[in-house]
Amino acid sequence: MNWENRYQQADTPWDKGAAHPMLSHWLGHVVIDGAIVVPGCGRGWDLRAWAEAYPQHSVIGIDIAASAVSAAQELCRELPNVRVVLGDFFDPNTWQQAERVGLIWEHTCFCAIPPSWRERYVATAAEILPAYGLLLGVFFTDMDDEGAGPPWNTPVAELIERFSPFFEVEEAQVVHHTYPGREGEERSFQLRRRDT
């Protein structure tokens, strides 16, 4: 998938012009020890929401599409705690500096990568998060992708199986909020890095 072309052609149906509604459950309510990382940050709506709620934390947005990075930098230009990087989440050398990562916010990355890359995603998240670090996010778990993603569906059982070797996986025990049109397709999860 050429994401840069999608942005240049304004073919971005995943971009709703606002942060994900489920963020209201977590913003300001979770204790974070380190930087907040937003892989596949797109135009930066979620990035900005995290940065405003946690001004004392570094917030790092990563995307492989230059147009998305430029848009996110513009959206967050007055927020000194935000750094938006043209880089590859799977190669932390392209974006990670000396900061300790305390939280990964997952919204649009896991569902966009080819399913064959899911093991790489889990390994990367486990590598950059210390013991007890958090991965919070929303996942398409009940969507019929008809085998033609992205976005790609991941059944709950597969999600738990993939992440469990490194993370305690808990479905958020709240009503899931999402954008209009995605009702019944997503679930929200809290994953805490195991101390192993």
SSE order and pairing:
Blueprint: H1 3-8, H2 23-26, E1 35-39, H3 45-53, E2 59-63, H4 66-75, E3 82-86, E4 101-106, H5 118-128, E5 134-140, H6 156-163, E6 167-171, E7 186-193
Parallel strand pairs: 1-2, 1-4, 2-3, 4-5
Antiparallel strand pairs: 5-7, 6-7
Question: Nutshell version of this structure?
Answer:
With 196 residues, the protein is of the alpha/beta class.
CATH class descriptor name: Alpha Beta
Q: What percent of residues are in strands? A: 15-25%
Largest sheet: 7 strands, mixed
Q: What coarse outline follows from CA principal-axis ratios?
A: globular
Radius of gyration: 15 Å
- Superfamily (CATH H level) name: Vaccinia Virus protein VP39
Broad structural category = alpha/beta
Provide the low-confidence segments as ranges.
none
Known CATH architecture: 3-Layer(aba) Sandwich
CATH topology: Rossmann fold
Mean pLDDT reading: 95
Overall domain count: 1
Number of strands: 7
Instruction: Give the CA-CA distance, first to last residue.
Output: 35 Å
Structural account:
The protein is of the alpha/beta class and 196 residues long. The protein has one domain: Vaccinia Virus protein VP39 (Rossmann fold, 3-Layer(aba) Sandwich), CATH 3.40.50. Helices cover 24% and strands 21% of the residues. The chain is built from six helices and seven strands. It has helices spanning 3-8, 23-26, 45-53, 66-75, 118-128, 156-163; strands spanning 35-39, 59-63, 82-86, 101-106, 134-140, 167-171, 186-193. The protein has a seven-stranded mixed beta sheet. The chain is globular.
